[in-house]
């Protein structure tokens, strides 16, 4: 890994957030707190930039592990920002019940739809809360994204779910760089070093992807020692998920 100055980068991100908020007359931030390192680091950055009183974290369990909620509480207690809980389990179940009336579907056919429904419900919730708190406070709250550079490059996110946000503090930092920023911000190690999981499929991220984040980082840094087969797998993931970034839009031709 190339030399990384965590202190400098952290201060640059905080400066970027403060400048954007001041320029646009904004006040607060809403973000989902998953119990993982990315949301923890972003929460730390936002509290440093805006003050703990202007940050609201949200836990959004949906057939989730209680450990994730406990880790989210650990982060909110450490940085002293408000933490709300909106349990989406019943919403998810009601949605599924309605869908089953549309046809005779097999259990296996629901898997991908179920996995992606959860982040879409979560994103609808945080945007609802952002609008609500904006009305209460009389100034705008933004929804904050928590995806890192490695996830984004291979398209490891849900279109219309965790891909939707108003500001992205760590989108240009790899997993290892995010960890270094977290170390500088003193994010509790229990969360910072926890193996990343989507909390949706009961799999560790790297198991689901079939590649390691360190390998994605090596690819992005053009490491010539990276195994060619792994590089091809990363390229395939990237190209197969480009549709998540761009919506093909027909532009009518000027008539002669």
Q: Describe it for me?
A:
This protein is of the alpha/beta class and 256 residues long. The chain has 11 helices and 4 strands, in the order αβαβαβααβαααααα. The protein is 50% helix and 8% strand. Strands 3-2-1-4 form a 4-stranded parallel beta sheet, with helices on both faces. The protein is globular and about 50 Å long. The model has no long low-confidence stretch (mean pLDDT 93).
The biggest sheet amounts to: 4 strands, parallel
**Text of the CATH class:** Alpha Beta
Query: What's the CATH topology label?
Result: Rossmann fold
Name the shape in a single word: globular
User: In which order are the strands of the major sheet placed?
Assistant: 3-2-1-4
- CATH architecture descriptor: 3-Layer(aba) Sandwich
Order of helices and strands: HEHEHEHHEHHHHHH
Whole-number count of domains = 1
Number of E-state strands: 4
Structural class: alpha/beta
Q: How far is it from the N-terminal to the C-terminal residue, by CA? A: 56 Å
Can you give the mean pLDDT?
Answer: 93
Radius of gyration of CA atoms, rounded to a whole number? 19 Å
- The number of distinct helices, counting runs of at least 4 residues, comes to 11
The stretches of 5 or more residues where confidence is low (pLDDT under 50) are: none
Residues in β-strands, percent: 5-15%
What is the assigned CATH homologous superfamily? HUPs
Please bin the fraction of helical residues. Answer: 40-55%
Summarize it.
This protein has 256 residues and is α/β, with parallel strands linked by helices.
């Amino acid at each position: 890994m190339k030399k990384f100055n965590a202190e400098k980068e952290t201060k640059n991100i905080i400066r970027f957030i403060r400048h954007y908020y001041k320029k646009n007359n904004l006040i607060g931030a809403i973000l989902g707190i998953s119990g993982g390192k990315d949301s923890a680091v972003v929460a730390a950055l936002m509290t440093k930039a805006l003050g703990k009183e202007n940050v609201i974290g949200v836990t959004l369990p949906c057939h989730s592990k209680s450990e994730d909620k406990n880790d989210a509480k650990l982060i909110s207690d450490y940085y002293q920002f408000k933490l709300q809980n909106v349990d989406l389990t019943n919403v998810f179940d009601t949605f599924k019940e309605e869908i089953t009336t549309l046809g005779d579907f097999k259990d296996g056919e629901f898997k991908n739809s179920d996995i992606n429904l959860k982040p879409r419900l979560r994103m609808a919730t945080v945007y609802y809360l952002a609008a609500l708190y904006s009305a209460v406070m009389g100034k705008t709250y933004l929804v904050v994204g928590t995806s890192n550079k490695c996830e984004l490059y291979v398209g490891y996110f849900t279109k219309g779910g965790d891909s939707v946000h108003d500001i992205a503090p760590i989108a240009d930092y790899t997993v290892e760089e995010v960890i270094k920023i977290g170390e500088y911000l003193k994010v509790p190690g229990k969360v910072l070093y926890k193996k990343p999981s989507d909390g949706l499929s009961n799999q560790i991220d790297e198991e689901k992807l079939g590649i390691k984040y360190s390998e994605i980082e090596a690819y992005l840094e053009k490491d010539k020692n990276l195994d060619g087969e792994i590089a091809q797998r990363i390229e395939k993931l990237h190209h197969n998920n480009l549709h998540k970034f761009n919506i093909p839009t027909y532009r009518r031709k000027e008539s002669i």
